[in-house]
Amino acid sequence: MEVTQILLNAQSVDSTVRKHAEDSLKHFQEENISEFLLSLSNELSNNEKPVDSRKLAGLILKNALDAKEQHRKIELVQRWLSLDVVIKTQIRACLMQTLPSPVTDARSTASQVIAKIAGIELPQKQWPELIGSLLSNIHQLQPHVKQATIETLGYICEEVSPQVVDQDEVNKILTAVVQVVCEATLSTEVKIRQAAFECLVAISSTYYDKLASYMQDIFNITAKAVREDDEPVALQAIEFWSSICDEEIDILDGYGGDYTADSDIPCYYFVKQALPALVPMLLETLLKQEEDQDLDEGSWNLAMAGGTCLGLVARTVGDDIVPLVMPFIEEHITKPDWRQREAATYAFGSILEGPSPEKLIPLVNVALNFMLTAMMKDPNNHVKDTTAWTLGRMFEFLHGSTVQTRVITHANCQQILIVLLQSMKDVPNVAEKACGALYFLTQGYEDVTSVSPLSPFFQDIVHALLNVTHREDAGESRLRTAAYETLNEVVRTSRDETAPVVMQLVPVIMMELHQTLEAQKLSSDEREKQNELQGLLCGCLQVIIQKLGASETTKHVLMQYADQIMELFLRVFACRNATVHEEAMLAIGALAYAVGENFIKYMQNFYPYLEMGLQNFQEYQVCAVTVGVVGDLCGALEDKLLVYCDGIMTLLLKDLSSNQLHRSVKPPIFSCLGDVALAIGENFEKYLMYAMPMLQSAAELSAHAVATDDEMLEYTNELRNGILEAFSGILQGFKSCPKTQLLMPYAPHILQFLDRLYNEKDMWVLIL
C-alpha cells in the first residue's frame, strides 16, 4: 500500500482501519528508518498529494527528530546523525522545496521540521548553507514564500543557540526580518500593518543593540503611521518609541550617573537623536482626544499614547525636552478650543518627571496659579481632569524634603487646599484626580520636622475626604478608592498636633464597617460593591491603628476600642472574599503589634481564620499576608504563642512542601520560621528535626540556583534572604540557653551556605 493511503487511513474514524495503518507505519519505521523518513519528506513536498496526508507526514517527521524526555531526545538526535548523508541531503531538499508550496499547512510544518534538523546539525557544523538559502528566499516576490521563510528563521532561532550561528549570519537574519516587517507596514490591510508595528515593538526590546543602522528608516515609517494611518496602527507606531525609551531608561538607570561610552551595555541615545522630530510628532497626537476618554477607565487612544510616550521621552532625555515642549504649551494653553487647552496642560504634566528641578521649578512657579484658576473656572471637564492630574504630578516630583527650592509655601498652601477640596465636589473623574493631587501634597510634608502647613486644615481635609466617600456617584472613576487612599496618606503623615482628629476617626470608620456588615439580601452587584467598601474600611483602620499605636500618648485611645475593632474584623472573615480577607488580615497584624501580649485574649476566636489563611493556596496573596501576620503575632505574644505553635508550624511546613502554593510565598514562610523560633526560644526544639532539613534542602537548592533572568535572580535572592532570616531567628532563639548544643549538627551546613553566598560574584542578598 502506498504511503499516502496509509497516512490517510491513520486518520480514519474507523478504529480498525486506523489501527491497521498505525501498525503499518510503525513496521515501516522499524524496518527501514532511512526510507521511512525519505518517504515522509517526499509526501510533504508533493503539491499533488492530499493536505491531510502531507500534514501527518510532516508531524511524524518532526516527532522523529525530537522528544520531551531527554533520554529519548538524545536517541533521536544520534539516529538522525547516523543516517546516510545522501538520504539526509534528499530529505533536506524536499523540505526546502516545500517552503514555496501554496498549501499553508505544508509550509508551516516544513518550517518546523527544518528548524528541528537545524537544531541537530548546525552545532555539528553540518548544513552550513541553510541560513544563506533561506535568506535568498527573502527576495522572492511571492509573499507566501517570504512568510514561510521568516517563520522558518523564527523556529530556527528558538531551536539553535546564538553561539552556534555565525554573527554575520545573525545580523543578516535580523536585517531580513526587519526588511520584511518594514515592508509589511506598507500593506494595504490594516491588521497586517498593525501586526508589523507590533513586531517592531518586540524587536526594539529584544534587539535594541542591533538597531542603529535601521533607526532612520524606522523613524520615517513610524512618523508616517502616527500622522496618517488608522488608530490601531498609529498606536503601535507610538508604542515602538515608548519601548525604545524603556530600554534606554533601563540602561541609564542601571549605571546611575556613571554611564560612559565604555560601559558594558551600550546606550545609542536613539531618543535623544530623534528628539527634534520626535517631540513635535508626539505633541500633534495630544490634540486628537476623544470626548469621553476621561470617563472610561480602559480608554486608550492616540492622545493618551502620545502623552505617555512624551513622559517616557522626558525621563529619557531630561532637560533637553523642555525647550521643545514649552512653545507648544504657550501657544495652546489659553486657546478657546478645549482640545488645545487640554493638550497643552497634558504636555506640561507629562514632562514633570525627568528634567531637573532647577529647570522645571521656575516654570512651575508661573504655571501653578494658572492651573489653580483653571481648576475652578475652566468650563470643560476634560481640561479640569488633566489640570488636576498635572497638579498631582507637580506635587509628586517637585514638592518634598529632597527639593531645595519650594514650590508650595505657607503663602500659597491655603489657596491650593481650597481649590483641591472644592474640586473634590466636582464630577467624579475630576474629583478623583483632585484626591490624587492631595495625596501627593500630603506626602511631600512627611519629613517636615516642624509643624506641617497642613495641620491647621487637617480637620477640614478629613471631613472633605469622608464626604467624598459618601457621594452617591463615588463608585465612578475609582473615586471612593482614591478618597480612602488619600485619607490613609493624610493619617499616615499626620503630626502629633492633629492626633485628636485621628482619634475621632476611629469610631467613625468602625461604624461604617459595622453598617456594611449589617446589610442583608444584597444582589451580586451590591455584594461586590459592599466587599470593596469593606476592604477599603479595613485598610483605613489598619493605617489608623498603626498611627495611634506608634505613640504611647495615643495608644490608650486605641486600647479602648480594641475589643470592638477585633470583633468587627472577625465578622469580616465571614464574608468569604479574598480581597477583604487580605485587608482584614493586614489590619489584624497592625492591631496585634499595637496591643502586644494582650492580643492573646483574641487568639481563640482568631486562630481558625489564621489556619484558613495559611491553607489558602488558591488565593495565595491571602496566604502570604497571613504568614506576615504570624510574624506580627510572634513579636506581640512571644512565648504566649506557644499553645498555638504546633498548629502554626504544621501548616507552615506543609506550605513549604506544597507544589500548589505560589513560589512567592515560600521566602516569607522561611523568614517566619525564624520569627517563631525567636518568639518561643528553646521551645523550638521540638520543631528542629522538621524545620532544619527543610531549610538545609532549600539552602542547597538556592546556593546552586542559576538565575536565567532578572525575575529568577530576584526570587533566588528573596529565597536566600528568607533562609538567612530563618537561621538567624533560630540561632538567636537558642542563644544563652543550655540547649544551644542542639544546633551544633547544623552549624557546618549553615557556614557552608554563608561561604557560598559570600563568594558568589553577583550576590545581592542581605546577610543578617
From TrEMBL:
<keyword id="KW-0677">Repeat</keyword>
<dbReference type="GO" id="GO:0006606">
    <property type="term" value="P:protein import into nucleus"/>
</dbReference>
<comment type="similarity">
    <text>Belongs to the importin beta family. Importin beta-1 subfamily.</text>
</comment>
<dbReference type="Pfam" id="PF03810">
    <property type="entry name" value="IBN_N"/>
</dbReference>
<dbReference type="GO" id="GO:0031267">
    <property type="term" value="F:small GTPase binding"/>
</dbReference>
<dbReference type="Pfam" id="PF13513">
    <property type="entry name" value="HEAT_EZ"/>
</dbReference>
<protein>
    <recommendedName>
        <fullName>Importin N-terminal domain-containing protein</fullName>
    </recommendedName>
</protein>
<dbReference type="InterPro" id="IPR011989">
    <property type="entry name" value="ARM-like"/>
</dbReference>
<dbReference type="GO" id="GO:0005737">
    <property type="term" value="C:cytoplasm"/>
</dbReference>
<keyword id="KW-0813">Transport</keyword>
<keyword id="KW-0653">Protein transport</keyword>
<feature type="domain" description="Importin N-terminal">
    <location>
        <begin position="21"/>
        <end position="101"/>
    </location>
</feature>
<dbReference type="InterPro" id="IPR016024">
    <property type="entry name" value="ARM-type_fold"/>
</dbReference>
<dbReference type="Pfam" id="PF25574">
    <property type="entry name" value="TPR_IMB1"/>
</dbReference>
<dbReference type="InterPro" id="IPR001494">
    <property type="entry name" value="Importin-beta_N"/>
</dbReference>
<dbReference type="InterPro" id="IPR058584">
    <property type="entry name" value="IMB1_TNPO1-like_TPR"/>
</dbReference>
<keyword id="KW-0963">Cytoplasm</keyword>
<dbReference type="InterPro" id="IPR040122">
    <property type="entry name" value="Importin_beta"/>
</dbReference>
